[in-house]
């Protein structure tokens, strides 16, 4: 379906643009990035209310982008919690084994 592909491309383009905006904002004022990280952490803490597909997508994006960003800024508590919650949704069996 061509329209579904177009929507996907539009969503991806919108997401890429949001990321570009965040990095530009980061160059101007790091406090904006700290707010973005706090927002992502809040979103991750409430991820259980999202559909499974969205949980996986958000968890992977968090692990790929936001946790390393927190690490680079030295915000270790954010980094650790973002990674732990991501792991919970990306590798649930392994998470349960380690959590036991």
Descriptive notes:
The protein is an all-alpha fold and 100 residues long. The protein has five helices and no strands. It is globular and about 45 Å long.
Overview in brief:
With 100 residues, this protein is an all-alpha fold. The protein is 88% helix and 0% strand. Helix 1 crosses helix 2 (30-45), helix 2 (30-45) runs antiparallel to helix 3 (52-73) and helix 4 (76-90) packs across helix 5 (92-99).
List keywords for this structure.
mainly alpha, 100 residues, 88% helix, 0% strand
Terminal CA distance reads: 45 Å
Q: Structural class of the helices, strands and pairings?
A: mainly alpha
Mean pLDDT: 85
Number of helices, counting only DSSP H or I runs of 4 residues or more: 5
Task: Please outline the helices and strands.
Layout (H helix, E strand, L loop, with lengths): L1 H27 L1 H16 L6 H22 L2 H15 L1 H8 L1
């Amino acid at each position: 379906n061509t329209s579904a592909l177009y929507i996907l491309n539009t969503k991806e383009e919108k997401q890429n643009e949001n990321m570009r905006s965040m990095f530009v904002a980061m160059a101007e004022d790091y406090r904006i990035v700290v707010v973005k990280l706090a927002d992502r952490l809040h979103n991750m803490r409430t991820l259980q209310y999202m559909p499974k597909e969205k949980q996986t997508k958000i968890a992977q994006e968090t692990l790929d982008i936001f946790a390393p960003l927190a690490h680079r800024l030295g915000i270790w508590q954010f980094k650790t919690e973002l990674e732990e919650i991501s792991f919970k949704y990306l590798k649930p069996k392994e998470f349960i084994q380690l959590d036991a």
